[in-house]
Amino acid sequence: MKIICSLGGASALLAATILANSASAASLVGTVLTPAGAPAYGAMVTVFDAAKEKRDTVYTAADGSFAVRTEFGGALSVRARLAGFEDSIVVANVGPSENSRLDLTLKHFASVDDASDALSASAFNARLPWKDVARDRPAFISQCNYCHQIGNATTRIPQSHQEWMTTLEKMEGMLAMPSAPQKAAFADVLSRGFDGKPIAAKQSYGASPELARAKVREWEVGDADTFIHDADVAKDQKIYGTDEGHDILWVLDPKSGAIEKYQLPDIDLPRGGIFSGMKLPIGVFSGKHGPHSMAQTRDGRIWITNALSSTLMCVFRRSRPCIPTGSRPPVPI
Ligand code: HEC
What we know:
Blueprint: E1 2-8, E2 14-18, E3 26-33, E4 44-48, E5 54-59, E6 65-70, E7 74-81, E8 88-94, E9 99-101, E10 104-105, H1 112-117, H2 121-125, H3 133-145, H4 161-173, H5 180-193, E11 215-220, E12 228-233, E13 239-243, E14 248-252, E15 259-263, E16 291-296, E17 302-306, E18 311-316
Helix pairs in contact: 4-5
The protein binds heme C.
């Protein structure tokens, strides 16, 4: 890869793709049952490699059966997961080219808290007690949910009205733009709605015959400061990911699983780029460029908008090995 032009001008740890087929070594077949012994339809069965850096996931058919071919071998963790049940995790010793049988039985949650904690953010978000839904919820979606979900374990911690006002001010520092009345309405509903008590909800992953034929493969890259914003498939069928936390362009070859990383050329800006000093979250915007979005033009060049350095950068894979030259640092406009 070569940075050929730059013009003046925004634990994510996993890149995922759905594979139709993959050349693989071992096969696991079996059934997932509910605690009552009924077939679990649409359960996710995930095989983790021994280092827990890669995973293969398939979904069970209506009779609870699954089959997964995987290139992983050794002591592999296999997890069955279905909404409404506790995960079932077993360790299977799988040799290369081996066919193994594995039956898993989901468990009941040990407590109402465990059942509540396993729900998605939307289950909590949907219960927010809006005084005027038609007026205030669209503003909440446009000013809060456009950036991140609200209702997960991090964002539903109980806070007083005043504490929520402080959180909302922090979010304004990240460029949320609620009006003063909207802020008061948000602080009101959030302080009443997120009270720390467990909730009960029925959720479904949407089991279907199509899903039972799908396979998802995931690769883990980077570290705790890695924040892959965009992931695009380029013309070379590789997956490119912009890491805002480290100013890195990750390149994954889904066929071989090989992962390359390219450091963007340094720029004379502090950590956080031109937004340094604002209330930016540590570990999210810790780069200087903050590579955000990507698009590939017909000539093969990949264009990146650098959110923190306010530059537009382009990247070109000209020869192998691909090394970014960094010879022409981006020029801010
Ligand atoms: C521009 C993007 C953006 C918008 C818009 C935004 N947030 Fe956030 N929010 C973040 C980021 C990034 C974090 C992580 C902060 C950190 O790691 O310190 C965060 C964290 C949070 C947290 C976790 C607690 C904390 O203080 O870090 C809560 C709660 C939260 N946001 C609520 C909201 C609400 C309510 C709104 C709507 C007013 C909102 N956010 C709008 C980006 C945003």
